[in-house]
Structure formats: structure tokens, C-alpha cells
Amino acid sequence: MKKTMAYSMVSLLLVTSLAACGSNNESANNDKDAAANANSNTTANGGTNGSAPANEGSADAGGDADISGKVVFLTNRTDMVDKEYKDYETRFEAKYPKVDLQFEAITDYDKNEKIRIASGSFPDVVLLSTLIPNAEFPKYFEPLDDITFEGDIYFKDFKSFEGKSYGISSGNSTVGIVYNKKAFEKAGITAIPKTYDEFLAAAQKLKDAGIVPLASNFKDKWPLGAWYNDVPAIISGKADTANNRKDTDTPFTLDNTYGKSFSIIKELYAKGFLEKDVNSTNWEQSKKDVAQGKFGMYLLGNWVINQVVDAGAKTEDVGFFPFPADNSGQAKAPLNPDWFYGVNKDGNVPAAKAFIKWMIEESGYDDFAGFIPTLKSKEPKLAQLTEFNGYKPTFVEALPTDDTALSIQNKAQIDMDGLVQEFVLAKDPQKVLDKVNGQWAKARKEIVK
Amino acid sequence: MLNNLSFKKQRLLIILGFTIVPLLLLLTFSYYPTLELIHLSFTNWDGLSPDKSWIGWDNYKEVFSNSELFGVFTHNFAYFAVGIVQNIAAIYFAIVLNGKLRGKLFFRLLLFLPYILNGVAVSYLFGYVFDTTQGSLNLLLHAIGLNGDTSWLGNETFVNYTLASIGFWKFMGFNMVIYLAALQSIPADLYEAASIDGATGWKQFLYITLPNIYKIIELNFFLTVTGALEVFDLPFVLTNGGPAGSSETYVMKILETAFQFNNYGLASAMSVVLLLFVVVVLSIQRLIFSRKGE
């Protein structure tokens, strides 16, 4: 009896553990379909390209006869379904009466979209997953160069391959210091810090007033992204730090841009300007704490402003200024794209393009999301962004990720968030850098031949 | 139609009819994916591109030569160590709650309840317990006059033990219930005869209880060992592998390799290695137990 039970438990466990391994393989199957699909796509290619110019005219005219049929937008904003999207649908269909606009919302967008694309059939308008390399775009997506916008747009060539652009940024954001004005007042900070020394002095004042100066959310890893993406851009004034790594065997040194950026957070940590225990932080709680003035600042994107307001802060109490990473007094700020719209080349291309144009120019989505609009001429609605622009920052436009640099990083299995954590906590940061440089050099040898 | 067939054929038909469905399910959802997994582990597939090239044993070489990958198994030791304590505690509670005790059903329920809770929910719950500044554990320690500043989840030396203690809380009741079932199958007259012969409680435990629940101990150890090797949800939710990777587990590494670094081939190889590792550890355990048991 006991034996049977033991055996049945064992087999049950084996079955469940095997089933768990299965998820990888499902996408393997899909992949075969995708391969078949890709082949049929190349044959159909001539046709699709040929019809593109005809669509261009109609996209401009607006409400033209060509724009009809069903168009589905695969979105990541599950919160907007049946709310804002309902309104978008009514307004868009009023402009293009022959179109039936539908929204499909999914979570964990990056991974799920990849599986959908690999399966060979996916909605007409999608957000381009960051997991898809630019070189793969022509296989699945339609070039979008022929959409004519009212004016210049940001990141026109960010998602391009061989001179054709496949993605339009849905909105853009910058990174800086989001702060609680009441907390600054309480600590006696009268002027916004414009240099790094002033920033440290302000942090000290906050600390003396019993306020945690900067909420790093160290434990959750992803909030550390600013320290290897954005602060390096602020320090160097160029957004090429990550891409330049492909040309060197030692991309991480104490005196280069990465080292300088990591050293800033290490200094803040050493001086006690971060949370009391950085390994025990709570993201949701931190928003409330910033809203209530228990925490003074965040170094994050402008997207967090609305969330702090939602957590109970008054809009007028939340401010936003460029992070002074050096003592030059020159305000600099990175400009990063959010998701990019892409169009399925086998979908309803004319309607999809009209939809993207409409989303950028008329929907008001950028204001709703608190973005810096993709149209360069359009002013952001968010009050904090107006304040931010008041400091006259030079915007450092992000560059597309270099595929070589990315594949070296993946091959070397370097987790950048983990690297920042290790650097900050290490007694000897040089050792940490030596270790990752070793990993990097080894992987680089295999990738760059 | 069935009447025309002989009894033997009818029986065969019915057996086949009943087994084919579960067998098909098993083959499509367990064995086929496993074979694909093994196949993938010999390729350099990136998860998207249609071409998968065969790279032989390279992935396996990488798994064993890269200490970053295989080295995380040392983190699992804490779960294993706590798992042993957990089993001892489970036997203890099973024996106590098997005896004459007021409200024993209530206590059994109380100890078993954590097992029913969802693993992620448990992790969140303990996030509030172990929080350094506002956690209930540190508040309690502070209230009774002890140092209430310990960073339970931020100390590289014992973060894994902190996490494993949550596993203890969650799975001890489950082990206990299995032991209880085994204890209840031991005939009471054995104890009666032993006590007439003058055996003490400890002697009874050593010579009657233990040999009788031997097989169940083996089963529980099997569950503990595989659980320790495959632990995932606790560190994933609570520490994200931190501080600085000291609570990362092997399964987290697999996930990271596949979905963050897009290296599905290597991740598949890691999964196969984990599978083999479980089999090896199990065989060793089986060897030790059967030698002592027979």
C-alpha cells in the first residue's frame, strides 16, 4: 500500500515536472509554423510592397474609401479596455466609418507577443516587442515611412532596418528627479539643486529632517535601470555608452561612464541617502511614502509622476527636475521612447496606418499617459514636464540598441540590474567590474570574429 | 456490433478505449515536450528565429564550466538543511497529534492550513513579516527588547535560510499529514505489547514507530529534496535573487537564461541537467535508504 502510494506520488511529480518543462517546446512548434509563414511572406512580398504607395495617398486624405474593414490593436494597457478605448473606438470610427476598430489587451506583452508572432498570425497593429531584433522586422512588419505626420516626429529611425522604418513611438519619456515639494520645504531646501554638490547638500538636509532622501527601490532591481541607461547618458551627453561596449573588452571600468554612474549611487548608499535597508524595499509602499513626504525623491521617468499622484499626493506637490550628475551646472536629460507601434504586413495595412496616425495626432493618448508627445511641435500637457522643461535641459535622444552589443551581453549573461546591486554592495567594486569584464571579453570573442 | 467479437477482443477493445485518451494526453503534453526539450538543448535557438543550428554538447559544456550557472546550487543547500529539520519537526508533531490530546483536530488543521495557501500569496505575506523597517518580525523583536534592525532578506549569509524557513512554515504541515496517515496504520496492539514488556516511549518510537514509517520518511525526503532543488517562487517574489544574486536559485537562472538573455538552447540544457540531477540525487537517496531498510 505504502509502496503504491510512493510510486503514484513519484509518477505524479514526474508528470508535473515534465509538464512544466513543456512551455519552451510549445514555442518551438510555433516556430516551425513561423518559418513556413516567413517563406510564404517572401513570395508575397512583391505584392505588398507594390500596393503600399497607393495606401499612402489614402492615409493622408482621411476617411478615404480605401480605409475599411476590421483592424485590431494588440495593446498592453489592460486598464484602458472598456474605458478610454471605448471612446477611442467611437471617435476613430466616426472619422473612418467603414472601419471596425477592435482592441485586444494582453499582459506580459513582450513574451506573449513574441509567441503570437512566432505562431504566424497576429493582430494588425501591435507594439514592437523589445525582444525582436531590428533585422527581423521585414519578415513580419510593414514599413511605415509613408505615414505623413503634421510635423517632425521623435525617434523616426529608431526601429529601422536597411533604411526603412518599422515603428512609430507611441510616446516618449525622460528621466530625472521626481520630488515631493512639501518634503523639500520641510527640509529647508529653497532652490532646486543644479550641480551634483548641491544635490548632495540637499540630500543631507532631507536626511537631517528625518526624510529618506532618495527612494532607490534597490531590491526590486528594475528601478536601477536609470543607473546604467540614463545617468550614463546624462554624464556623457551621448546615448551610445551601451552600444560602444561592443568595441572593447573592458566596458566596465571605474573611470569610464559606467563606473562614474555606478559610483554615484554607491556614494549615495554609503552616505545613507537611500532607504534604511536597501535590500528590503517595497515599490508600492515607496509611492505612498513619496506622496506623503516620508521619502524625498525618486530618480525615475516622468511616468511615475501620475502614479505618485494616484498614491495620494496633490499634483501641485510633486515636482520634477533634471538630475545633476556633475558640477557643470548644465541640465541634461535623456529622451527615451515608449512602445513603438508596428503594423502586421499581412494585416489590414491601410487602416492600421490610419490608426497609428490618428493615435499620434488626435487620440490624446500621450497626454493621458503623461508622455512627451512624439510630434516634436506638440507641448506636453503634464504640469511637471513644463516645470522640467523650465530648467532648459538638453535632451539626449536614445539610440537604437546595437545588436552586437546586445548579443554579447546576452551571451555573457550579464544582468545589468544585478551588476549595479553587486557594485553598490561590494567592498571592492573593482573586483566586481573585473569579473563582468572577464565575462564580457569571453563572450565578445565568440560573437565578434 | 460488439456482440460479434469474442470476449477477449471485447476486453482488449475496452482496455484500449479507456487507456488511449490518457496515454495520448501524456504523450502529447509530457513526453513529446520532453523530447523537444532534449532536442533544443543541443541547438542554439534564440526563441524567435526560425533557424536552430545543431551545436552538439556546447550547451552542456557551458552549464558545467560556467560557475555562474552551476554555482547557484550552493544556495539550495539551505533549503535542503531546513528540509531535514522540517521533516523531524513533522514527525514530532505527527506523533504528538496522534496521541491523546484535547483539540488535536484543530491543531492538525492549524498546522496543515499553510500548505493550502498559494505560494505567491505566502511569499507576499512574508514580505511584510521580514521587512526591515516595518516588518512585524523586527517590530516584535524590538518590543521584547532585542535588536530589531536585522535585514532578514538583505544579508548574504542567511538570506537563503530566511527563505527556507518560509518553506518550513508552508510544507511542514503537509509532511505531518503524510506521517500522521502512516502512524495511524500502525496497529495499536504493537504498542500495547511493548508497554507490557516495559518499553519506554523513546524505545517504542525507535523500535516500533520508526521502522513502520520508514517508507514514508523516504517519500517525504524525496519530496523535500526535489523541492529544495526546484525552489523558485519564494526567492522570485521576495528577493528577486538579491542581494547581489546571493539568493538566486537554479530554476530562476533557467528562466533568466531563456526569457531575458534569449538563450533557449542553453536554458533547455540547464533544464535537462536539472532533471538528471534530480534523478541522480534520488538514486543516491534510494541507495542509502534501501541499504538501511532491508
Look at the helices and sheets of chain A and give the structural class: alpha/beta
Tell me the helix content of chain B.
over 70%
- Tell me what the CATH architecture of one domain in chain B is: Orthogonal Bundle
Mean pLDDT of chain B: 86
User: What name goes with the CATH superfamily of the largest domain in chain A?
Assistant: Periplasmic binding protein-like II
Total strands of chain B: the figure is 0
Radius of gyration of chain A: 25 Å
Counting DSSP H or I runs of 4 or more residues, the number of helices of chain B is: 14
Report the total helices of chain A. Answer: 17
Pfam family, one (chain B): BPD_transp_1
InterPro entries (chain B): ABC_transporter_permease, MetI-like, MetI-like_sf
Family (chain B): Belongs to the binding-protein-dependent transport system permease family.
Membrane topology (chain B): Multi-pass membrane protein
How would you portray this structure in words?
The complex is a heterodimer of chains A (449) and B (294). Chain A has helices at 2-61, 84-95, 109-118, 137-140, 181-186, 196-208, 225-236, 241-244, 257-270, 283-292, 303-310, 349-361, 365-369, 383-390, 403-412, 416-425, 429-447; strands at 69-75, 99-105, 125-127, 160-161, 164-165, 168-169, 172-180, 212-215, 295-301, 318-321, 332-337, 340-343, 394-397. By secondary structure, chain A is an alpha/beta fold. Chain A has 2 domains: 1-17 and 172-337 and 383-449, 3-Layer(aba) Sandwich (D-Maltodextrin-Binding Protein, domain 2), CATH 3.40.190.10; 24-170 and 340-369, D-Maltodextrin-Binding Protein, domain 2 (3-Layer(aba) Sandwich). In chain A, strands 7, 8, 9, 10, 11 and 13 form a 6-stranded mixed beta sheet that branches. In chain A, strand 4 (160-161) and strand 5 form a beta hairpin. In chain A, helix 1 (2-61) packs across helix 12 (349-361) and helix 15 packs across helix 17. The radius of gyration of chain A is 25 Å and the shape is globular. Chain B is built from 14 helices and no strands. Chain B has a domain at 63-122 and 158-293: MetI-like (MetI-like fold, Orthogonal Bundle), CATH 1.10.3720. Chain B has 294 residues and is mostly helical. The relative contact order of chain B is 0.13. Classes of the chains: A alpha/beta (449), B mainly alpha (294). At the A-B interface, helix 1, helix 3, helix 15 and helix 16 of A face helix 1, helix 11, helix 13 and helix 14 of B.
